[in-house]
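From the shared-data thread, chain only:
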Amino acid sequence: MRKIIVSEFLTLDGVMQAPGSPDEDRSGGFKHGGWQLPNFDEIGAKAIIEGLTEAGGFVLGRKTYEIFAAYWPTATSEVQAFAEPLNNLPKFVASKTMREPLAWNNSTLIAGDVAKEVAKLKRQSGNDLRVIGSGELVQTLMKHDLIDEYVLMVHPLVLGSGKRLFREGGSSANLKLIDIKTTGKGVVIVTYQPIKEEAK
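Structure, as tokens:
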């Protein structure tokens, strides 16, 4: 049995939309894309690389997959520590519109019931699976109680608008703090595990 670990960049007010670049996701009129980069430093980079290299693979939503597939296969030598695990490890892509074969190396389409297929992936042996970005997919995994851990890089920034990880009307959960680190730029890296209710 392996874990599903959700890894996200967040602002202090919980926004996860378009951390990487201005054009990453402008839906809803979002104008703050690229907010993560000014707070990037060596401590944060080390934490990200460790998470990527320890993974047994990645579970991604369609939008995140398309952004990654357009960038990481031809990434520059300066970012190969990030690119190598993303390019070489298995990627499982949840999409109702994509069709196989998928162009990016080691990519498999999750068609049909996403929750059932992810539950099957969890029952396989191997290292834990990471979910990066993929906001809509994460909502589905939350709803079906499939997330075993959250690794959240909370940035010292309030945007006031944008898509959030924990949304109005979403699932409720009690979380246990497992680890906390702080970067030199004031980013707090927190690891939480949901407290599972015991079966009655």
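The longest strand covers residues 4-11.
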